[in-house]
Amino acid sequence: MKDAMTSLPMKDKFMLPEGVIYLDGNSLGPLPKSVAPRVAEMVTGEWGQHLIRGWNVDDWMGQPMRVGNQVGRLIGAPEGSVVMGDTLSVKVYQALSAAVQMRPDRKVILSDSGNFPSDLYMAQGLIAQLGQGHELRIVAPEQVMDALTDEIAVAMITQVDYRTGRMHDMAAMTAKAHGAGVVMLWDLAHSAGAVPVDLQGSGCEFAVGCTYKYLNGGPGAPAFIYVRPDLVEDIMPAMSGWLGHAAPFAFETEYRPAKDIERMRVGTPPVVQMTALEEALTLWDGLDMADVRAASVALCETFIAEVEARCPDLRLASPRDAAMRGSQVSFHFEHGYAAMQALISKGVIGDFRAPDIMRFGFTPLYIDDADVRAAVGILEDVLSNRLWDRAEFKTTSRVT
Ligand SMILES: *Cc1c(COP(=O)(O)O)cnc(C)c1O
After folding, report:
1. 371 is an active site residue
2. For ligand 1, what atom is nearest to the CA of residue 87?
3. CATH 3.90.1150.10 residue ranges in the chain?
């Protein structure tokens, strides 16, 4: 029913400050207008009036699964296979520890140098904790396919590179991994809400991701975890918290995991934050990820062509082929940090990733062609007039 679809963009659904072109929704999505009233209602009506009864009457307890199903629909996961909670780093740890347990005879965890550091750090921490002689092997993104040998226990790969936007082929890589008996763990941090994902079709064992980027859940929004339904009952959670217990309110002294994906829950969920996310996710009702992707590719192609025509100092860091790119575009520039600060001061918000990457996220829910062209005009001004070459743009803040 194509004509029932919401058409893009839907800027009027977002609170976007006057005079800002927001190209950083890949890092923190903006505020959907309906979130503030919904959160206010939850806080004063549910928490304020219902007090502890909210766990039942407002079904706060069922929210991590309910929201998990909303996210699952956007990433091709079946009902009941995704649950929300904690942060992505914690979910990486949980998924990786479960994955490693599945291959006790293998000692290598494979990842790539395009992975986000927290994923690598969590793997290092897990390896130290296990004390079983595991190795974290980090290869270049282009080398992952060849590195999938029968020595590898788990491949822990982020589909879209946070720095360059380079995208791995999930189906092909999972098939190659499985051919070598490797357990596949995907991090969808820069995929969920950005590109169509077919988790079930890929056959991967685990997937994790965050919801404050393209899903607009707000700073600190909870993460998600997917476990392939046929495996979940065999997974012993490394973080055996009471809400992952089969009967939390039986208050037994022995841990017994819940029978399904709920075993990946840990403790009390962040209800206020999850309510913001639950409301933000309603924007996706009636949207088709294929349409979102088509619009995203068009915006990225225009941006690349315009920047290359008007800003000769910048060098493309992202793949030129749209099929190999997520929903962001990055450029190398020696003075990238200062240039980004100058650009932000003129209302075009992107971000900077060391050592020299200027990064721009394209989110077709609220960015259109006119925004892209206007942003490049301002970028051209910043570069050709060296507006970045001022002390105020060169002091590094705590968050870049
Ligand atoms: C954004 C991101 C994270 C952040 O993890 P948090 O625990 O949510 O802070 C981790 N991994 C990847 C791949 C990311 O892109």
Report:
1. no
2. 7
3. 4-32+288-393
Average confidence (pLDDT) over 285-298: 96
Tokens of 108: 């290598």
CB 224, CB 82: distance < 8 Å: yes
Whether 116 is a known active-site residue: answer yes
CATH of domain 38-284: 3.40.640.10
199, containing H or E segment: helix 199-202
How many helices (H) and strands (E) the chain has is answered by 12, 15
Which residues touch 113 (CB under 8 Å, ≥6 apart)? 138, 139, 140, 141
**Pocket lining for ligand 1, CB < 6 angstroms:** 87-89, 116, 118-119, 158, 162, 187, 189-190, 210, 223
Question: Which position has the token pair 């994955």?
Answer: 99
Distances (CA, A) of 51 to 43, 55, 63, 66, 111: 10, 9, 16, 21, 45
Write out the residue limits of the CATH 3.40.640.10 domain(s) in the chain: 38-284
Residue 187 is a catalytic residue: yes
With H, G, I as helix, E, B as strand and everything else as coil, classify residue 107: coil
Query: What is the CATH architecture assignment of 4-32+288-393?
Result: Alpha-Beta Complex (3.90)
Q: What is the pLDDT of residues 80-97, one digit of tens each?
A: 999 999 999 999 999 999
Closest ligand 1 atom, residue 189 Cα: 15
* Residue of the CA atom closest to atom 15 of ligand 1: 189
Ligand 1 atom showing the smallest separation from residue 119 Cα: 11
390 is catalytic: no
Query: Which one from 206, 359, 362, 366 is the annotated catalytic residue?
Result: 359
- In this prediction the pTM is 0.96
Beta strands across the sheet bearing 315-316:
315-316, 328-332, 357-361, 351-353
